[in-house]
Design a protein that fits this description.
By secondary structure, the chain is of the alpha/beta class. The chain contains 13 helices and 13 strands. The longest helix has 21 residues.
């Protein structure tokens, strides 16, 4: 799914106003589900990394950073993911040497590079498997899911986007009204800068919810390798424009861009189109890590040609010093209380 342009806001447009009655119904149903008591308390502490809207915000880099901080505290984190678009019907431990993005989803393959990762559409069953692999669960997404009790929940927000026009689906990007989500958050993680994010930070502050500030940092080695080079930028993520802007920020000469739907499954036709651009311009195809693992290592065809020609740009999340200290304290308090 590609987010409609009218979701961006900052104020609702006519399309949102037309969809507003449906949005009210959706919000009522989603809120009733959100307010249910958790069905299961896992045998290990659960830290949930979610976002209030659909689309990309930086959840996966946040989850990876938290896992590394937990390891530094002497814990053995395990990731738990629904595995968007995954084929698996029951809990499975991700094996990057065996599984593909079609099997378990793209995000779990990235998470599995850092710590053991369980994919399960049923969060409770997945948590049970995760308990045998470590001593603390980091849940990627699932903030609005009532299946598991969460010991700490973080809401990750792209500061440039905020919560869009502030409406719930389908009139806007919110999964349910922002207020109840902030009320349940242990902290808000603001990624990047932007007036839209500052508006959310103000609301969070008024509720006494800490706001942690970070930014996505491109891999230094790849930044050096790509700086000054012409590139064909393509991405199938929640907000491809954000990736294109990042390439420009690190000095890449973006000559063409191609935006695909979030979690897009690339076809030979897509690859032929991208390679035609490469042949015409001589530029290198550059994409995100998520797209890189989704394309994988095809055995033949245009996808194999693309896979051999393209490069991925890894990014990590870095907090400012006060936010890093605040997050460390949150994690330690959570561990002390479980």
């Amino acid at each position: 799914m590609r987010a409609p342009g009218f979701w961006r806001g900052p104020r609702p447009g006519w399309q949102a106003m037309c969809l507003w009655p449906i949005s009210l119904l959706y919000a009522a149903v989603a809120l009733a589900r959100f307010r249910r008591a958790p069905m299961v308390r896992a045998g290990a502490p659960v830290i949930c990394v979610g976002n209030p809207t659909v689309g990309g915000s930086g959840k996966t880099p946040t989850a990876i950073l938290i896992a590394r901080l937990l390891e530094a505290l002497g814990r053995r984190p395990v990731f738990l993911s629904r595995g968007y678009g995954a084929k698996v019907s029951g809990p499975v431990t991700v094996d990057p040497k065996v599984h593909t993005a079609a099997d378990v989803g793209d995000e779990p393959l990235l998470l599995a590079r850092t710590a053991p990762t369980v994919v399960s559409p049923d969060r409770a069953l997945g948590a049970e498997m995760a308990e045998g692999l470590g001593d603390i669960i980091v849940m990627d997404d699932g903030f609005q899911n009532p299946a598991l009790h969460k010991d700490l929940s973080l809401l990750v927000i792209d500061a440039a986007y905020g919560v869009g026009d502030g409406y719930c689906l389908p009139a806007g990007p919110l999964r349910l009204p922002l207020g109840p989500q902030l009320a349940r958050a242990g902290a808000v993680v603001m990624v990047g800068e932007g007036e839209a994010g500052e508006a959310v930070a103000k609301q969070a502050g008024a509720r006494g919810v800490p706001v942690l500030r970070g930014r996505l940092v491109a891999d230094p080695a790849m930044t050096t390798a790509l700086s000054g080079r012409p590139a064909i930028a393509f991405a199938g993520i929640g907000r491809p424009d954000k990736f294109f802007e990042t390439l420009g920020d690190i000095g890449v000469q973006v000559v063409e861009t191609r935006a695909f739907a979030d979690h897009h499954r690339y076809s030979d036709a897509d690859a032929r189109g991208l390679m035609a651009l490469q042949k015409r311009s001589g530029a290198i195809p550059v994409t995100t890590e998520k797209d890189l693992v989704r394309i994988g290592t095809p055995s033949g065809g245009a996808l194999k040609t693309l896979a051999e020609a393209m490069v991925g740009l890894p990014v990590t999340l870095a907090f400012d010093e006060p936010s890093a200290q605040a997050l460390q304290a949150l994690l330690e308090d959570t561990l002390d209380g479980t």
